[in-house]
Request: fold
Amino acid sequence: MQPPKIRAFWTILFALAYLAAAYGLYWDIQWHFFVGRDSFWIPPHVLLYSGIAVAGVSAFLSIVCESIWRRRSDGSIALWIFRGSRGMFIAGIGILFVVIAAPLDDYWHRLYGIDVTLWAPFHLMTLFGSFIGLIGLTYVLAGLGNAARGTRWKLFGYNFYQWLLFFEFGAAYGLALILAQPGLYNVPIVAYRSIAIIPAVLIVAAPLTFLTTAAVCYAGRADAALATYLLFLMRNLAFVWTVPLVTLRAVPSYGFAFRNPGMLPQVLPGLAVTALALFPGALMIALLSHRGRPSLLGGAFGGALFGAATIVHAHLFAHSPLLASPATVALSLGAAALTSVVGAWIGRGFGALLTAE
Reply:
């Protein structure tokens, strides 16, 4: 067996493990909120870190295998005695961050007790490592997708690896939404005198614009924006609908108890409204893409629409009266448009890098 077949095998295993870890992360957030954190070995942590462990082993074995069966024509790079995909080296660094963060996060909880704050230092370190791993995975998938562009086995013009790449872009969509949640619930407004903005709007708008434009530039087709959004929507709805049900069954099964028996996890169909509200942003970027190259104007409008979806979520679930100010909303959407121009510009460059991978 020679690369890139070896690379393809380990990459698919890595992607599946990352999906399991992402589900564990989403489950862990709900578990902390409704149950707490009596032990490091709670079920969501086991799933999260098992997924991370399998992903880390996959990255390591991919590099080891390619170091043994070396071919300079397969896009591999050398690092000392090792050779492998650039993306696998990057993904390995991301996994290392997560592994280091795990015991530090456990120590943090032992010192300061249970918390439900996502923006705790080692939670952020875990999310940062997860994002780096996701970037590395997209590099590997982009290379495999490029190598398979001529295959006859395609769905709507995209091969398997390209669809998997769009799925990972959609996963990064979900990561941006998770990072925005503390902004909506804990820091809904950042103000200086009469100037106030909603920080969650910026946290969502710029990354989603970056990801969408990168997908379009990589594929060279405007509909890649909609493909990325569609896969995000499917993934998001699957998580939203199943995690509360899994939590309700798992808590008594493992002998845990809910913090407040009167407040139990439940399926919230309204969260689907938030996911659906992101569609206009992706559609705008697709419509304003010429020959697979998104315009910066499209990034501005798309980012503003992504920001508007965040405000829809805030009014539905955050219930903060501060979000009702028209001036605050207008200023926040304007800031989202400006930062999204930067996101679109960087996304176009990243998409070009993936095309050349």
User: Anything to note?
Assistant: The first strand starts at residue 77 and ends at 79.
